Each structure stands twice: as C-alpha cells, then as structure tokens.
C-alpha cells in the first residue's frame, strides 16, 4: 500500500468519525476539517506572527483611523528613494505608532493585464499575476497617506507587513454576487514605530526581478 493511499485512507476515516479536527504537519503546517461547512483545509506553512491581532484590527475598522492617517506625513527622504511615509505625531508628544495598527488597503486602479501599464513601479499583484492594482496615480497625491507611499526595506528591517485578503461580493439582497470575490491588500505595522521613523515593508523578490541593480 502506497504512503499516499494510506494518508488518504486515514483522512477519510477521520472525516467520517469526527465533526472537527486538526492534524499538525512537519514544518508548522496543519490539516483541519470543519463538519459545519464540510471543507478540508490544508495549510502548508504556519500562520505569520501577529495574524490574530491583525485580523482583529481589520475586523474593528474597515479603514485607517483618521487621526493616524493625518499623523503620517509624506516627505522627501533625502535619498535616492525619493518620497516616503513618516510617523510624525509631534502634537501628541512623540507617541509611538503601536504594533499591528491597520494602515489601510493598497489603493489604485484594478488591472487584468500589463499591456497598458507604462510604469510598474507602483504595481501590486493580488493573486500571483492575474489581477493587479496600479497605484501610480494615487501615489502622486502626497497630501494624504496611503500604503502606496511606503518604501521598500528588507524584511529584517521593515516595520510594516502586508496581508492579501479575499472578500465575498454580495448584491443588495445579501446574496453572493455570481460567486464574485474582491481581492485587496491590507497593511499593518509589524512593531511599535517611533515618532519621525519612516514606514517601510518588504516588496518581495518578485518586485526586484529584472531590476536588481535598482534595489535600495
């Protein structure tokens, strides 16, 4: 009997006997089953640190706190990076921007093709290459902060993280709109940020592919 068949047989036995269960996988992943919806879920990697706190922050607010938004200033970094976003809360006595604070969604024009895009500097993919958000035009407005203004920093030094999300789209009656789904990218602080500190996140290796010489 093959190992694959044995695993499938064991899973079938678990599903038929129990309404809900979780099996840990090597490396931190897991296989779980919920009888309420009948779905078998396989997570190959552990959840990122702070996922629960970030989810709670997103649930309690669908947009960035206006006071926080007003305290993030877009200004010239004085480097090759150009403009950047800074936590500049001087009126409150240099209060830190707390860890796991929701910073809003990546804003821009939805694109399904790269053909008409001339500047890919502010391009964010939402599903690996089928759907994009072009934040170039939004980035030109520096009067109000948006995650499009965040500069790159390697993961070990970055103080913000992004989370790709999928929302169900419903019509006026509350029913699923042709199985439609809305994809968005939410941003959060990954640690406390001091007054005057620049907000950054890791753009990822895909962004720098073909432009390695430009990496800051």
List keywords for this structure.
3-stranded antiparallel beta sheet; 216 residues; SET_dom; 32% strand; signal; globular; alpha+beta
Describe the structure.
It holds the Pfam family SET. Residues 1-20 form the signal peptide. Keywords: Signal. This is SET domain-containing protein. This protein is of the alpha+beta class and 216 residues long. The chain is built from 5 helices and 13 strands. The protein has helices at residues 3-17, 51-60, 66-71, 136-139, 205-208, and strands spanning 20-24, 30-34, 39-43, 72-76, 83-87, 102-105, 109-111, 123-125, 132-134, 151-152, 160-170, 176-189, 198-201. The strands form 4 sheets. Strands 4-5-13-10 form a 4-stranded mixed beta sheet. Residues 174-178 have low confidence and may be disordered.
The dominant shape is globular
Can you count the helices? 5
Derived structural class: alpha+beta
Report the C-alpha radius of gyration, rounded. Answer: 21 Å
The overall pLDDT average reads 77
End-to-end gap: 53 Å
Biggest pleated sheet: 4 strands, mixed
Contiguous runs where pLDDT drops below 50 for at least 5 residues: 174-178
Helix content: 10-25%
Task: Estimate the strand proportion.
Answer: 25-35%
The strand order across the widest sheet is: 4-5-13-10
Which series of helices and strands comes N to C?
Answer: HEEEHHEEEEEEHEEEEH
Strand elements, count? 13
